[in-house]
Amino acid sequence: MKSATVRLGVDIGGTFTDVVLEKSGETFSTKVLTTHAAPEEAIIEGLHRVCDRAGVLPGEIGQIIHGTTLATNALIERRGARTALITTEGFRDVIEMRTESRFEQYDLNLTLPEPLLPRQMRFTVTERVNAGGEVMIALDPAEIEAVADRIAEAGIESVAVGFIHSYLNPAHERMVRDVLARRLPQVLVSISSEVSPQMREYERFNTTVANAYIKPLMSSYLGRLEEKLRAEGTDCRVFLMHSGGGIISVANAAEFPVRLVESGPAGGAVFAAHIAARYGLDKVLSFDMGGTTAKICMINNQTPKTSRVFEVARTYRFKKGSGMPISIPVIDMVEIGAGGGSLAHVDSLRQIRVGPESAGSEPGPACYGRGGDRPAVTDADLVLGKLDADNFAGGALRLNYGASVYALTDTIGDRLDMHHSEAAFGLAEVVDENMANAARVHAVENGENLGDFTMIAFGGAAPLHAGRLCEKLGIARCLVPAGAGVGSAIGFLRAPFSFEANRSVFMKLSNFDPSRIKTLLAELRAEATGFVRTCDAVSPIVSEYKVYMRYSGQGWEIPITLTEAQATAPDVAVFAARFEEDYARLFGRIVAGMDVEITVWSVNATTPPETIAPIVATTGHSAAAVAGARRLFDAAVGKFLAAEVVERATLRTGQRVTGPAAVTEAETTIIIPASRDAICQPDGCIDMVLKV
Asked: What is the number of structural domains in the chain?
């Protein structure tokens, strides 16, 4: 019999699939190599492992919450369905023309991302809705029928529909969907007025195309997963983490899979926010490093920063505008190709380069012994003494030290006349500097000083590199929570059920219409609440209101948070005061005498977060029990040092580990540099601090 006290969190990454089972407050976890051809197979293997350890049957699980990088990887690797776009006549090339801006002004060989769809897969119809939502040219159903015939001939599996100003009047898009449903019932349809009902046609069209592109893949996968779970005896509901940090149903995820693009990283940010709240930290840098990517997120006041637009598959690593824009509610973070599986090479200038190409789980780094012959970050970590070859991933995989040495020597050492340990040092420093640079850029973009922040590190590879990253960024304190190796999966179990509804309705404060605003926000609240109720029929729901505002003539807007009272009883003076307050905080001044306009309205419906008990941190008063010793390379010193090895399971509250040291556990290893000590806190967190 299933129990509400038994819950399962699953995070599918590019290299590992993390599975966490919670039973009456006790946690059991495992890492399984991701099975890319059939991702559900790794989930079932992990399910069996944690159920065996917890002493429960799969049928006793009361809830499964799942996050995945499958949607992201499908977009990056262009492995989506055969897709078509139907759009307004004259706007066929919007997704290729982009915004016509040059993100790198002086690069004569500028490389722009290729659109997801070639031109021959974009079809137009004669219709037009103006900026006020009024129909100027009615859509002829016969024209849709003709396009449907061409789509059928082309063997299209999925269709995106995006018309100009359809976010104000979706009638024409809905007409197309109805005709296609009748003529081509096997074809999946995504309409922009539901996927992303916001202004800016390039972002809206591209998001809708992306949704359509991955919809058959994700629908098929989710169907197979539910079937596999039923075959194992689990009859509980399955939910998915969405990019905004909340949980949605399988049905909603299958309809809007683009909302899953950042689902795994979002779980990590929720996990870090939970730890931040436990320690009362107002400024936190979340650092999540797995096998394929590293994710960095700024968390202020225990709430991850959110955004309406983010980019996938940037052609220039740190350049905004070089990627594919996705316009959905998302936790704002920077993501780079720097993980344990990131591959290294020497470029034409004899410089070591790392990533974004990853070995993944198939074949994996050279040390996995699965056919990989190029050095990855994991190979460097092994040679530098950060990893135990006999106890990797809880002993599930034995690492081949010799293979790492050979790969490092062959790819880097021989070309640069380096010993294999020097090559490993160079590789590790490059990847650490890449991540540090990404964090610096992200901090500058947000007007923050990283010296004021505490790092929270999790993911299989993050604890290996967090200490060095703190040294580079000038961060004094780093927390590595219990279960850090599977942090995102734990974050899924901490997330509320939520859904954010957005809509673009242009309004100037000089034409402020309170009754129209009340109606609009009520509609958005009903839409968002309806989605949440598909997941949770009984819990109270809290509504969070945002409007996006700017001075007239500006190209972009800033988010303004409203209270329930301000949203339900809109007053123009209050809206103006809130905008000026936030604008002045961001830019140091206001612009007097200019009209202000609202472009986007947003309501996020969410179940209340769980109550978090605060932790009283200890400063550490006794030495930890030492389990062994190893040679550990310290990058700040530039040489191997004798380091103690401590088993995390043996640490007790208040015990201190003096760096250099390695704190080992099943899913990861925490490397304590010589400049730091580590203290075990009451909740099991390892608190890495500067030596006094």
From this structure: 4
- Dist. CA 607–CA 515, nearest whole Å: 27
β-sheet with 237-241: strand ranges across: 26-33, 16-23, 3-12, 61-68, 237-241, 247-249
* Bridge partners, residue 462, by sequence: none
Q: Are residues 17 and 130 in the same domain?
A: no
Residue with tokens 């689990």: 234
Indicate if 14 and 95 belong to the same structural domain.
no
CA distances, 634 to each of 352, 609, 680 (Å):
19, 41, 22
The helix (H) or strand (E) run that includes residue 383 is: helix 377-383
pLDDT at res. 312: 77
Rounded CA-CA distance 319/103 in Å is 7
What does the pLDDT read at residue 2? 47
Residue ranges in 235-294 assigned as alpha helix (H): 250-255, 263-279
Q: How far apart are CA 266 and CA 277, in angstroms?
A: 17
Range of the domain at 186: 81-205
The domain spanning residue 579 has which CATH number? 3.30.1490
Coil, strand or helix at 435: helix
Q: Which two tokens stand for residue 307?
A: 């955004």
Give the pLDDT confidence score for residue 134 in this predicted structure: 94
128 found inside a domain: yes
What is d(CA 581, CA 587) in angstroms, rounded to the nearest whole number? 10
- Residue 220 falls inside a structural domain: no
- In 126-240, where does DSSP find H-type helix? 141-153, 171-183, 192-195, 201-231
- Residue 435 to residues 230, 322, 354, 474, Cα–Cα distance (Å): 41, 18, 11, 14
Q: At a CB cut-off of 8 Å and minimum separation 6, what does 274 contact? A: 491, 494, 612
Does 108 lie in the same domain as 46? no
Q: Nearest CA to 454 among 673, 272, 306? A: 272
- Indicate the helix (H) or strand (E) that contains 425: helix 420-445
Cα separation, 668 vs 677, whole angstroms:
18
Residues 102-125 as b or e (16 or more Cβ within 10 Å = b): ebeeeeeeeeebebbbeeebbbeb
Walk along the chain (692 residues) in steps of 10 and give the mean pLDDT of each run: 72 84 88 84 92 91 87 81 96 90 82 88 96 94 95 96 95 96 95 92 94 93 90 89 86 90 86 92 91 86 84 70 83 81 88 81 83 90 90 75 93 93 94 90 84 91 93 94 86 88 92 95 94 88 94 90 93 96 90 93 90 85 88 93 93 92 89 94 92 82
Nearest one of 567, 505, 518 to 542, comparing CA atoms: 567
pLDDT, position 1: 39
Q: What is the pLDDT of residue 307?
A: 82
